[in-house]
Amino acid sequence: MSKGIVVLIAAIAGIFALFQPARGEDAAPAAAPEPLYATVNGKPITLKDFHGAYANYVRQKYYHAQVPEDQLEPIRKEVSDRLVERILLLEEAMRRGLAPDEQRIAQTIAEYDARYAANQAWRENRASMLPGLKRQLAEQDLLHQIEASGHAIAEPADAAVREFYKARIELFTEPEKMRLHAILLKVDPSAPKAAWDAAREEAARIVVRLRSGESSFEQMAGLHSHDRSADKGGDMGYLHRGMIPEQVQSQLDERALGSLGAPIDVLEGIAIFRLDERIPSKVMPYEDVAARARVLLKREQSKQAWDSFIANLRSTAVVNMVEPVQPAQPPASK
Q1: With the C-alpha atoms ordered 52, 53, 55, 60, is the resulting torsion angle positive or negative?
Q2: Of 263, 266, 228, 268, residue with least CA distance to 246
Q3: 271 contact partners, CB below 8 Å, separation of at least 6
Q4: What are the phi and psi torsion angles at 92 (to 5°)?
Q5: pLDDT, tens digit, for every residue of 253-288?
């Protein structure tokens, strides 16, 4: 059975991306009621729903990596909120009388038929999967429609765009740039102290030779540096403030142009920097960034509209958390 069919069957079984669908009246009766995680306006979210959505979220965001312990609770809350909001959004879509786009759903099913026409599992399971597939696609279409409505905003006036530009001028300011030359003596982060000490001593000797004029920075970079800029004489080009590690930036801020400072410990080893040029930050004229300012303002207003829309839905919702769940690392995927 192909991976695509496995995923599709899982989706129709109720594991659809991050969210479980609300159980419809046509769902097969269970031998025993599923333990509840919560109810939203009387509609159930089971513990199985929550754990499936939680595991899917973690797999998508962290893949095989371990979730940081301080992120477990925020992830639990986000997954919980999304499950609740999914039900509320579908309810709102129904209240507004929105209807799924049957032509689009039929087209999607036709695409599945074409994609898996030669797959035995699809041919054998298609009839039993089709009702669930149609329901899933219908719900997803309703969610897309209601989300588009919740994000919708009026086109901002030119005056509003200009005010946004003034209020958020940092978004339209080119940061300070520095042109640097570097010599990097590479040391593995896990190397013993003796290796780091040896690199520091070598870097100190290089600085002495540079200051004496015995050799040029470019020559020494070509001979000793393990940075990719070595073949360019250590020329790193122009770097924006924020691209440089803080311990390096703080030293460069006190440097005169062309001067050499003491070697600095960095993640990759021991580095020697020469500051060649400093270009001050520059505010970009409104006329040059008006289009970008409009895009950013619309993005911000759209998010605000969506947040307000969700807040309004939740303000009248009756949400009962039946079974609190302690966040935990999901089992490793096989």
Answers
A1: positive
A2: 266
A3: 182, 183, 184, 185, 203, 227, 248, 263, 264
A4: -65, -40
A5: 788 888 887 898 888 889 999 988 988 999 999 999
In this structure, the chain runs to a length of 334
Choices 2.60.40.1180, 3.40.50.2300, 3.10.50.40, 3.20.20.70: CATH for 176-280: 3.10.50.40
Kindly state the tokens that stand for 214: 């015995």
- The residue extents of the domains of the chain are 3-154+307-321, 159-170+284-298, 176-280
Nearest Cα residue to 229 out of 279, 181, 277, 299: 181
Q: What is the largest CA-CA distance in the chain?
A: 86
List of residues 6+ apart from 256 with CB closer than 8 A: 275
Q: Are 152 and 305 in contact (CB under 8 A)?
A: yes
Token output for 186: 């590479």
CB 83 within 8 A of CB 50: yes
Residues 103-141: tens digit of each pLDDT: 999 999 999 999 998 988 888 888 998 999 999 999 999
C-alpha to C-alpha distance for 268 and 283, rounded to whole angstroms: 34
| Cα(313)–Cα(305) distance, integer angstroms | 12
Q: What is the CA radius of gyration of the chain?
A: 29
Give CA–CA dist 146/154, Å, rounded. 17
Calpha distance 79→121 (Å, rounded) = 32
Three-state SS at 22: coil
Domain 3-154+307-321, CATH among 1.20.1250.20, 3.40.50.1820, 1.10.4030.10, 1.10.3720.10? 1.10.4030.10
Phi, psi of 296 (to 5 degrees): -65, -40
Average pLDDT over the chain reads 85
Strand, coil or helix: 46:
strand
CB atoms < 10 A from the CB of 296, how many? 17
